[in-house]
Amino acid sequence: MTISSQTARTGPYSGNGSTTVFAYDFRILDQTHIVVTLKNAANVETVQTLTTNYTVSGVGTSTGGNITMVVAPASGEQLTFSRAVPQTQEVDLANRGGVQPEILEAAYDKLTQLSQDKVELLNRMPRFPVSSALTDIELPLTLTANTALIVNAAGTGYTTGPTSSQISSAESDAAAAAASAVTAANEASAAMPKYTFSTTTTVADPGVGKLRLNHATPSSASVIIIDDQTADTGNPNVEDWLKGFDDSTSTIKGYVRLVEPGTPANYAVYNITGLTDSSGFIQLAVTHVDSQGTFGDTDSIRLSFARTGDKGDTGSTGSTGSTGPRADEPGLRLAFSTATADSDQGAGKIWLNNGTASSATVVYVDDVEAGGASINSFVDSWDDSTNTALRGTITIKKNTAPENFHIFNVTGVVTSASTYSKVAVTHVLSAGTISNADSVSAQFVRTGNAGSLADPMTTRGDVIVRDSSNATARLAVGSANTVLKSDGTDPAYGQVATAMIADDAVTLAKMAPGTDGNLITYDASGNPAYVAAGSATEVLTSQGAGSVPVFAAAAAGGLCTQFITAKLASNFGSTSNTLQDTGLDASITPTSASHILYVTCSGFLLGDHGYNYDTAAIQIQMRASASDNTATLYAGDTVGCYGADRDGDYGSFTLSYSAAAGGTSALPFGIFMSNLGSNGSANNLRSGALITIMEFAP
Predict the structure, then answer these.
(1) What is the pLDDT of residues 274-302, one digit of tens each?
(2) Cis ω on the peptide bond leading into residue 12 (within 30° of 0)?
């Protein structure tokens, strides 16, 4: 059998107090060829005894086998398996005898394993780099108890160094020197520039001789703002010195210390990570290192600075570390099975209850990993989260093609069978195909437990909110007819703000009732206001900008205060040459003696002679009474009717007159007519003629 693996050691395995079976993955020719080493919690290693402490299986198997411990290693203990082939040669070849290939191969295998064991041992020993010129390095011939081993002065070997007591003495001297250094540093701080502390946290020029932090708590500050001038006598300008605080090429430019001279227990130390030169002041970007106490406004402060060295050259590359786990194989190492039965499919297997992953509701996991390690207690914990809706997530990924995977949420409990576990799941996502016997990794990510919420409520209607510290708090129930609203940070009860009302959302029904006849306007402050309804005949009158309009009597001038009219009920005919009352009359009582009366009369005249002109006089007269026919003439006119060979010729007329009323007594007006024709024919005033009287304010 060939030996294709160079592995000669397995582990370490961490104990858990219950697991007793552990795998080794290299070939051994005899159970005595494996060394089992147990390291306790104090890092003390003990080689275990075959049969007394453990038993071996898998002898001669190329992939190794298992070590079964009599007592399970406890938590904090570790097991490591290494091969130690005896340095013997037991093959005896007879002269001229037949040689069996198996005998030679076994001998070669033993030689190969011996070589691998030595390489494994050498790999754990200190050694010089391959490029080193050092050779034949020897340890001192004799070793002295409690003495250190150090490199000799020539750098070509090792020699004995100081004793443990000498080292302790040196440590004590170093501590004393450190204490002296602290004292010296405190004394030196008195020689450092003096500033006056300002509790203002604004990043701006603090003023002559002042400095401030950008946070009220020194441990939370990230910027120190320092004026270019100190508070020392004469306020010397130290801008150039301050600007050198970031000259180091290291990430940390230096250290700045602020101390209150009168109370040195009040101090703050920061790492300097950057600097900004502003007009009249410096901004130091810092990270907090240590502080004690606080600085009060106007406190005297001493500032000291220590520069870090520049960034050094890149060192040589160190030796290669041990091989870590493969990035494409996180989680449990298992083999995928396409079986769907609720029964164990074999050690190191994982399978689903449905051949289509998206329809699977159960993931089955064997109690041991592909390497033989017990995993049942770990799988049993996959439902431990108290978040019952989502206890965690399982990702099954094909190791040789990680782009092929299945993802499930654990939404139920884990049920333990005799040799495997059943995990209730819901499918989330799948990609690609995972075939039977494919090597896979199963990774589980647990969700956090469901949170608990203390009940701060005290009053019916209270609600729970988060306060400015993001802690659970009580918001007391608001007053009647208030609403819960937010200012963008904290909710509060209050009246509905205008911004909360959508445009065109207020209906008439939602407006406050008013008085019948009132109008809505805006006052000088821009607030809604009512305009009273006013009295009859009043008009809405503006009071100018900034004043509410009012109802008032119309302004004088041009206003018609009265309008009276009458109509002639039937025709009036007359052949008389004197004025006759036609019966068309009307009366008006002026409201003011200064008002103007305007009287009009219009109608038609009809003649009864066909060959001559018929002429009539029409007059408006003001009577002393309704029956007075001798009243004063107000207006008159003569109207002619032209005869055209037949009766029925007609003419129209319109009379008007105006004058001051002169008083407030009733004034009757009548229409009079006389016949001025010479042929004795009659003139007729047709029915429907109108008299109109109007009163105007001047």
Answers:
(1) 999 999 999 999 999 999 999 999 999 99
(2) yes
Domain ranges of the chain: 9-89+102-121, 188-307, 332-446, 463-493, 519-552, 560-696
CB 430 within 8 A of CB 406: yes
Closest by Cα among 575, 595, 571 to 583: 571
Regarding beta strands 210-213 and 194-198, do their DSSP bridges make them parallel or antiparallel, or are they unpaired? parallel
What is the C-alpha separation between 414 and 282, in angstroms, rounded? 62
Q: What backbone torsions phi and psi does residue 308 show, to the nearest 5 degrees?
A: -85, 155
Place of tokens 């040799």: 419
Distance CA(440)–CA(351), nearest Å, equals 11
Q: Examine the pLDDT at 227 and tell me if it is beyond 80.
A: yes
What average pLDDT does range 114-130 have in this prediction? 74
Give the Cα separation of 586 and 85 in Å (integer). 151
Structure tokens at 434: 């995972």
Q: Which CATH architecture has domain 560-696?
A: Sandwich (2.60)
Task: Yes or no: say if 423 and 382 are a contact pair by the CB < 8 Å rule.
Answer: yes
The percentage of the chain sitting over the pLDDT mark of 70, rounded to a whole number, equals: 87
**pLDDT grade for 650, boundaries at 50, 70 and 90:** low
Matching residue, tokens 């030796």? 319
Beta strands in 420-552 (DSSP E): 420-431, 439-446, 463-466, 472-475, 483-486, 491-494, 519-522, 528-531, 539-541, 550-552
Does 322 have pLDDT greater than 70? no
- What are the structure tokens assigned to 591, written together? 């409201």
Task: Please tell me the distance from the alpha carbon of residue 256 to that of residue 223, in angstroms, as a whole number.
Answer: 12
Query: Cα-Cα-Cα-Cα dihedral of 216, 218, 219, 225, to 10°?
Result: 100
Q: Average of pLDDT values for 306-331?
A: 68
- 8 A C-beta contact, residue 620 and residue 601: yes
Classify burial at 233, counting beta carbons within 10 Å of its beta carbon; exposed 0-12, middle 13-18, buried 19 or more. exposed
Residue (of 278, 419, 426) closest to 361 by Cα position: 426
pTM > 0.70: yes or no: no
CA distance 290 to 155: 41
Contacts of 246 (CB under 8 A, 6+ apart): 253, 254, 272, 274, 275
pLDDT at 655: 82
Closest by CA to 107, choosing from 91, 83, 84, is: 91
Closest CA to 578 of 612, 629, 634, 647: 629
H helix or E strand, kind and range, residue 259: strand 254-260
User: Is residue 149 predicted with pLDDT exceeding 70?
Assistant: yes
Comparing CA positions, the residue from 457, 486, 484 lying closest to residue 473 is: 457
**Burial grade of 425 (CB within 10 A; 0-12, 13-18, 19 or more):** buried
The secondary structure of residue 287, as a DSSP letter, is: E
pLDDT digits (tens, 9 = 90+) for 590-640: 999 989 888 888 888 776 554 444 566 677 776 645 455 554 444 455 554
254 close to 272: Cβ distance less than 8 angstroms: yes
Residue whose C-alpha is closest to residue 561's, from 591, 527, 586: 591
